[in-house]
Each structure stands twice: as structure tokens, then as C-alpha cells.
Amino acid sequence: QVQLEESGGGSVQAGGSLRLSCAVSGYTYGRYCLGWFRQAPGKEREDVATIDNYDETSVADSVKGQFTISRDFAKNVLYLQMNSLKPEDTAMYYCAGRAGSTCGINVATWRFWGQGTQVTVSS
Fold it and tell me: Is the pLDDT of residue 122 over 90?
């Protein structure tokens, strides 16, 4: 059973930075895509960034140049470095995993989810 546990959320002022972490366990690490998604109050869950088997990354246009996804195979940890945070980045951030070599951004195709970590950015 795949387990994902996020950490690193919090409250920051606009312009600040946070690094989210996701501890990954329960499967053969290299055979899955991993990703970050977020959901703001009253909005649908949306993709933020994904990383595939070959460390190819994809970042949503809304956060391109602002957020960076990476992972540490040795530690089984997924990261999301968030810089220049804006109030509109306020959301619950979720770590997600899915089998296969093609990640995609369709929320419904991601099978495994963490509980989420809250990020709040004040102006």
C-alpha cells in the first residue's frame, strides 16, 4: 500500500518561500509518477507539478518559474520548493502518486493521495 505524508506547510507573507516535503513509502519508487496538487476553498483540485520515472518534470503555467519539484531517491522524499509566494497560492497542497511512466494532470487518474498540508500566504 502506497503511503504519502506531506509536511512543510505554514503561513508566510507574500514574497516568502516554503519547501514542502512528501515522505513516500510502500512501493517500488522508480515505477511511479509523483506530483503536487492544490485545492483552494471553493475551487477544484488542480495540478501544480509532476515528476516521472526519468526525473522529467512538468510545472503548471500558473507557477512556472516560481515552484520547483524534485525528489530524493535515497530518502524516498518528494519536494516542492515554492518561491515568491502570492496570496493566490493559498491552498491545501497534496502529494499524489500514480503507477506508470506518463504522469498527466488529470486528478482522477492519480490513485494515491496524502492528507495535505495547508499553505497560507498573506498580503
Answer: yes
- CA dist 8 and 93 (Å) reads 10
CA distance 87 to 110: 27
3-state class (DSSP) for residue 43: coil
Q: What is the rounded distance in angstroms from the CA atom of residue 24 to the CA atom of residue 76?
A: 5
pLDDT score for 100: 83
pLDDT tens track for 31-79? 789 999 999 999 999 999 999 888 899 999 999 999 999 999 888 899 9
- Distance, C-alpha 26 to centroid of its chain: 18
Contact 96, 112 (CB under 8 A): yes
Cα 24 from Cα 10, distance rounded (Å): 20
Cell numbers placing 24: 513516500
DSSP code string of 84-101: S--GGG-EEEEEEEEESS
